[in-house]
Amino acid sequence: MAATLQRVRAMRTGDLLVQSLVLLLAGVAAAIVVVIGVYLFLESAPLLTGTGLLGFFSDQRWYPLEGEFGMAAMLAGTLSVTALAMLLAAPVGIAAAVFIRYYAPPAFARFYRRLLELLSGIPSVVFGFWGLVVLVPLIAKLEGPAQSVLAGGLVLGLMILPLVSLSTDSSLAQVPRQYWVAGTALGLGRWAIVRKVMIPAAASGILAGMVLQTGRALGETMAVLMVTGNVVQLPASVFEPVRALTSNIALEMAYATGDHRNALFVSGLILLVMTAGLVAVAAVIQRRLKRYG
Amino acid sequence: MVRTGIYSSDGLISLILWGLFSLVTVVSLWMLGDILLLGLDHLSLDFVVGEPADAGRNGGIAPLIVSTLLVLAVCMAVVIPVGLATALAITEFLTPEGRWQATLLRSLDLLSAVPSIVFGLFGYAFFAIQLGLGFSILSGGWRWHAWRCRCLSGSPPVLWQWCPTATARRRMRWRSAGFPGARAFCCPSPALALLRPLY
């Protein structure tokens, strides 16, 4: 009797120990993002109090050695490349998911899904490298300086495509099977069911996934750095080179000092805030549009 | 009357989807094929086990492979305990009704969305400068620390996104059978996720 009681007590202390350890480590994990945010803010604070945040957005002249830190041009670069990538990846990605789930014969669907999973596992630097070696020379035949918004958008779009379509696929997979059965019972065609029943039912998941992948495209560094030419300017067409905010940090961090360094932290902070905003939007979409489950 | 063939919208859509499928397949295979062909041309044992020569224009990549693996090892040493603990906290110690689980999940969502360059920026300033670890490890110093930091933070989200589903799936059954079972279940799926810090 006493022995049993002792064992139970020992187990309790063990449990308690494990529990506090696990919760502590989880707390650490949760705190990391806060620490990063605060740290970036502190590092960029000296410059923020001097110029104010608006100055960075309104000014497009980036001459860090002369103390001019306008980021409008690079922000435009980031946004234009991301927008082009999403413009390519979103429709094709959704179509791919719909094809896999509702149209393809099983063997094709399996092959296609494996292919997309393979693509989603390829390091971004490989996409960038391929873009540089193969895609850029092709664009050069078409028009002017080939390292451009177009090259960046294509490479990034190809990179995001498998992610978009896999997340769409898993959203569609969550739609109850009865929806499909009911649609068929009503005599609807395949496309009618997909368009009017399945996609609306999965809309929250699809949209949220899309928003999150936009964040992924926004923060991509290597692939963009390698194919966009990195000229600081407002692009007048998709054939002009641009520099993205992310590339700028990678290019200049190694030698930046003083205000210049702080300016790079400001651009890091801007990136962090933009991605955090996208995560928040995705969360709201998921909560507002939830139609099932 | 049932309309079939390309006259119904179903047929047209089907045609479009097949077309897109072929396009995506062709482009993907084109890329994969290019990388394979361009790479296999130069791939040899000497290249993999050799030292770089002539400022990297010739020779091999052995030191790069070793440093990549070292970075990965440091990363894993941090990520596995923290990631696993967080996954366990979510599935076993915190309840969906409470506020903490939601907070933790929100924070992890945010973490996994942070661009890698921001991790690099933070890692450089915090690990290399603030903590005085400096450019200690040859020229690759700052990258090392940046990666180490990224590991600390970049990889766990991927890890625990798998873990909770894996544990939750068998949760009830494993629980009744005793806790260690979940461990075996948790391990295979994140194996791929662990490779992420490689790039």
Commentary on this structure:
The complex is a heterodimer of chains A (293) and B (199). Chain A is mainly α and 293 residues long. In chain A, 79% of the residues lie in helices and 1% in strands. Chain A contains eleven helices and two strands. A two-stranded antiparallel sheet of chain A has the order 1-2. In chain A, helix 3 (72-103) packs antiparallel against helix 4 and helix 4 crosses helix 6 (149-173). Chain A starts with a helix and ends in a 5-residue tail after the last helix. The mean pLDDT of chain A is 86. Chain B is mainly α. Chain B has ten helices and two strands. Chain B has helices at 9-42, 45-49, 62-93, 99-113, 116-130, 141-154, 156-169, 171-177, 181-186, 190-193, and strands at 52-53, 58-59. In chain B, a hairpin with a 4-residue loop joins strand 1 (52-53) and strand 2. The longest helix of chain B has 34 residues, at 9-42.
In percent, how helical is the residue content of chain A? Answer: over 70%
Q: How far apart, in Å, are the first and last alpha carbons of chain B?
A: 56 Å
Radius of gyration of chain B: 23 Å
Mean model confidence by pLDDT of chain A: 86
Largest interface, C-beta within 8 A: A-B, 68 and 59 residues
Strand order of the largest sheet of chain A: 1-2
Number of strands of chain B: 2
* Secondary-structure element string of chain B: HHEEHHHHHHHH
Distance between the termini of chain A: 49 Å
Uncertain stretches of chain A: none
Largest sheet of chain B: 2 strands, antiparallel
Quaternary arrangement of the chains shown?
heterodimer
Shape descriptor of chain A: flat
* Pattern of helices and strands of chain A: HHEEHHHHHHHHH
Which structural class fits the helix and strand makeup of chain A?
mainly alpha
Could you list the spans of chain B in which at least 5 consecutive residues all have pLDDT below 50? 1-7, 135-162, 169-199
Structural class of chain B: mainly alpha
Portion in beta strands of chain B: under 5%
